[in-house]
Amino acid sequence: MKIVCIGGGPSGLYFALLMKLQNPAHEIRVVERNRPYDTFGWGVVFSDQTLGNLQAADPVTAAQILDAFNHWDDIEVHIAGKAIRSGGHGFCGIGRKRLLNILQQRCEDLGVQLVFETDVQNDEDYADADLVIAADGLNSRIRAKYAATYRPDIDMRHCRFVWLGTHKLFDAFTFAFEKTPFGWFQAHAYRFDDTTSTFIVEAPEDVWRAAGLETMEKEDAIAFCEQLFAKQLDGHALISNASHLRGSAQWIRFPRVVCERWVHHNGHAPVVLMGDAAHTAHFSIGSGTKLALEDSIELARCIARQPGDLAAALADYEAVRSVEVLRIQNAARNSTEWFEHVERYAGLPPEQFAYSLLTRSQRISHENLRLRDKDYVERYEDWIAQRAGVQRGPQQRAVPPMFTPFTLRGVTLKNRVVVSPMAQYSCVDGMPADYHLMHLGARAMGGAGLVFAEMTCPSPDARITPGCPGLWSTAQRDGWKRIVDFAHAQSSAKMGLQLGHAGAKGATQVAWEGIDQPLQQGAWRLLSASPQQYLDGVSDWSHAMTRADMDRVRDEFVQATRWADEAGFDWLEFHCAHGYLFSSFISPLTNQRTDEYGGSLDNRLRYPLEVFAAMRAAWPDHKPMSVRISAHDWVEGGITPDDAVLIARAFKAAGADMIDCSSGQVSKKEKPVYGRMFQTPFSDRVRNEAGIATIAVGAISEADHVNSIIAAGRADLCAVARPHLANPAWTLNEAARIGYYDVAWPRQYHAGKVQLERNLERERGLAAQAASQSPLQRAQEGH
């Protein structure tokens, strides 16, 4: 096979040598526009896992790279005069020039033809090639030429950064943050050879401009950075190797590149994107070169698996790599946004700021950090616990963040786990009875700190379905009191009630008979901010609320609030999410009013805030109130996370203690982006920008998720829904699963606690025994 690689970066060179190893008869040419020793940038970073992949693909090249690596385990974070260090991260740094030289030499040794100082203008110049690799970098001409096929999406990110070097040799991957009168600057620094470290300086665009760097000459800008990070540089100078760039041109914005397709046929041969031409991942997670090399490995592997069927091999390559790259790019997006919004986190204590940085991508979790540096995690857990008023005894293990207490007003929750409100559709005439006693009682005994009843309605016409619970009578109040009294007598859980009104989503069938489908008989009149059908052409039309409707509904919520207190509930939540009545006022998708309750966000919030204030006045001062919001409508023109911060601030000013951050379900046109903990970023923003406690909810399914969220300050509580349907004792089970035994079980179930802990301890021991060595250890032994 005749192969041409356009671009002599890591991906093109590595693919060429792997294919030559696979079949020496392949005729392979790598064409590069620069000279052999020209390169830009300083050092590149790999993880130990990446090195393991290189070892498996070509031990000879891996050994040469390993010899040139500087390896370190530690990350050090400098903020507010403190330096916080953690270990076990397993990074390797190598000069980009050195890496390219190793790959170039290996290619030449194997018989790959290297052509330098040739700027390819047209892939069709190589009409005799069987395969063309477009590895021509970030500004790929080939990608631009065939954009209709590749369908690239290029997003220019919001920070400016400059890639510098220094002879200060850092012994840890160092992140440094400095506040200036213009805003926050940050540095990413790491050693990559015996004499040099990479030193990247970054700042949001508006901060960069305010500091005057846009008009500053290169030498002056470097001097500015040297002065700013003088403490970290210890008198060493910063160096630029971009002699071809002048002034502000050395400061660039990072382009995130995503391509829908990676293969185009030019009429002669398939043209395959690889490396930065196909995708980019922000330098803050150090994965650009990793992705480029792993592209090469996967394409070579696919071709080997399907000899003689190049089309099938390329289809496999695109399918496999696009999924893996998207996973890395999602993590890179999280990391990028963290650095773009450092000011959001700068108010956290330095200890929590550092933890937030370490876990910013959501690839590294609490338990993953524990595997890397157990002592660091335990010290941090002690710090979290002490702030919550907990001191561990000499024979006790550190308290995981999810099991620290949390206090709002006069209510203290024993831990950070919330049983989320979950519709059960099991009431008759709104009356909570034996089913809810069993359902909520079991979950109260299951270990959670706070157990919410499902959305409960203050009038019959506020219900979603005929099976939904109500609180419009003293009989219902007494039914709830029976349940709350049972939970309080049999557990230490606190009980919460969520009050809501279905609005335009009411008068529908119970879920298992047809979710969101209108009742065939017995329907009631629907209310909302403006007339609407939740399901176009299917749902009943709602009616715009009049002032008389507003007064009636407000008064019903106030009465239900009083009865909730009399029933003994510890916590009250006001439901303003998911397209229900109050959400219909807040979202511009459903509020088309032209009076004082429509138009601006302030106007759209007017009625929900009015009802909340009336409820707050009727609810005892010592009991907390939270508000559930849809922090993102997932529809263009709807509520955005920016709006969510403003909504949270408005409810905070009205007396809310906490915001429960959900999203969506306002419009069937929504296009949510799902994934584990996918709504947690909304909680993070609201908590750290609006300055109010939050509940994170959505695809939180294990203790590791909860611990990571709480420890990083992304939320104060975590609401867990479906896992609690599968296992009422989810909290107790998760405690045993992570080896935390200082949790009280119901005394009737104590024998089960002991047995579960023994079984899980045995499983952990077997898993530890079977655990393999790290990829770096394998690479070193192979070398």
In words, what does this structure look like?
This protein is an alpha/beta fold and 783 residues long. It contains 28 helices and 29 strands. Strands 5, 6, 10, 11, 12, 13, 14 and 15 form an 8-stranded mixed β-sheet that branches. An 8-stranded parallel β-barrel has the order 20-21-22-25-26-27-28-29, surrounded by 7 helices. Helix 1 (10-22) runs parallel beside helix 4, helix 19 (547-566) runs parallel beside helix 21 and helix 26 (730-737) crosses helix 27. It is globular, with a radius of gyration of 30 Å. The model is unreliable at 778-783 (pLDDT under 50).
- What portion of residues belong to β-strands? 15-25%
N/C terminus separation: 31 Å
Proportion in helices? 25-40%
User: Got a strand count?
Assistant: 29
Number of helices: 28
Radius of gyration: 30 Å
Question: What's the gist of this structure?
Answer:
InterPro entries: Aldolase_TIM (IPR013785), FAD-bd (IPR002938), FAD/NAD-bd_sf (IPR036188), OxRdtase_FMN_N (IPR001155), YqjM-like (IPR044152). This protein has 783 residues and is α/β, with parallel strands linked by helices.
Please supply descriptive tags for the structure shown above.
783 residues; eight-stranded parallel barrel; 19% strand; globular; OxRdtase_FMN_N; Bifunctional salicylyl-CoA 5-hydroxylase/oxidoreductase; alpha/beta; FAD-bd; FAD/NAD-bd_sf
Secondary structure blueprint with pairings:
Layout: E1 2-6, H1 10-22, E2 27-31, E3 43-47, H2 48-57, H3 59-68, E4 70-72, E5 75-79, E6 82-86, E7 91-95, H4 96-110, E8 113-115, E9 131-134, H5 141-145, H6 147-150, E10 152-166, E11 173-180, E12 183-191, E13 197-204, H7 205-210, H8 218-228, H9 230-233, E14 238-239, E15 252-259, E16 263-265, E17 270-273, H10 288-305, H11 310-340, H12 342-345, H13 350-358, H14 366-372, H15 374-387, E18 406-408, E19 411-413, E20 417-419, H16 434-444, E21 450-452, H17 474-490, E22 494-499, H18 511-514, E23 527-528, E24 543-544, H19 547-566, E25 571-576, H20 581-586, H21 601-618, E26 625-630, H22 641-653, E27 658-662, H23 680-690, E28 693-697, H24 703-711, E29 717-720, H25 722-726, H26 730-737, H27 750-770, H28 775-782
Parallel strand pairs: 1-2, 1-9, 2-8, 5-11, 9-17, 20-21, 20-29, 21-22, 22-25, 23-24, 25-26, 26-27, 27-28, 28-29
Antiparallel strand pairs: 3-7, 4-7, 5-6, 10-13, 10-14, 10-15, 11-12, 12-13, 16-17, 18-19
Helix pairs in contact: 1-4, 1-10, 2-3, 2-10, 2-28, 3-4, 10-11, 14-15, 16-17, 19-21, 21-22, 22-23, 26-27
